[in-house]
Amino acid sequence: MQDSIDRIAAETAFSGVVRVDRGGEIELVKAYGLAHRGSGIPNEVDTRFGIASGAKGLTALTVMSLIEERRLTLGTTARSVLGDDLPLIDDAVTVEHLLAHRSGIGDYYDEEIVREPLDYVSTVPVQELGSTEDYLRALEGFETKFPPDERFSYSNGGFVVLALITERSSGTPFHELVVQRVCEPAGMVDTGFLRSDELPGRAALGYLAEDGPRTNVFHLPVRGSGDGGIYTTAADVSALWTALFAGRIVSKDLVAEMARPRSEVPSPTQPARYGLGIWLHPSRDLVELHGSDAGVSFQTVHDPSEHFTYTVLSNTTEGAWPIVLHLDELIAW
Prior knowledge:
The chain is of the alpha+beta class. The chain has ten helices and twelve strands. The protein has an eight-stranded antiparallel β-sheet, with helices on both faces. Strands 3-4 form a two-stranded antiparallel sheet. Strands 5-6 form a two-stranded antiparallel ribbon.
């Protein structure tokens, strides 16, 4: 495995970290490429990477923790929390619809329309998106696509709405909630919503291509929210899966609810199922988180019965995928 990954990393100029865990032991962990090209700073195994939509799993867990405390239910309507804000969201849309990508709300970043991450242009200057409430301006004005629960339609905006719901239900800013309710109980000491204009030393800059100096600073919100933008390490991703299935973040009953399929997601290349905030393998009991955006590519797959995990983090737009495909072939899910 090490030799073949080294070969692919060299052939594709991979920049990032690969980690494989089996039975509670680290089978492989290695860093490649540069975290900062201008200064020649290499990636290390503990470098912090953005994971784009991988953050949706942590958003979902934050929501489920509030459900466990009875501050919310899966049937809580968005309207009951949002009040007069975002009036185009159907009054029947619930927390469960949003978690399952079955809400039908109009999406500020609709991936059925914008296919390539580099093509998306924010309607609000990215430097003005520093808090979840700031995203209200970006979320406004999108008509309903279809009635709630009619079908699956991946929705970035829906997960920002969930972040707003958690803030308003708890009285605590969303970024703090994720740390308190997910990262701390999971032991994810290096995970949090960092600002792209003040990244600390161990955080990797995101680059638009495998070569060249251009970063993603003009392409992404200065600070992410419920749909993406958290930074983490390979070790913290492994800790997340371990804590999740041990019931340390939310109860095992709620974990099972999250992993219950709500939709079949057809695809000619990567068919899947979807639960609540997490992707599910089309035929096996595997759970997955994916992230793809300008200067970011990420995937982690966990088999809870075999205690096996792989994680690929990259600070380039397409960098993770050749190694992800190779690992899937090696493991032969």
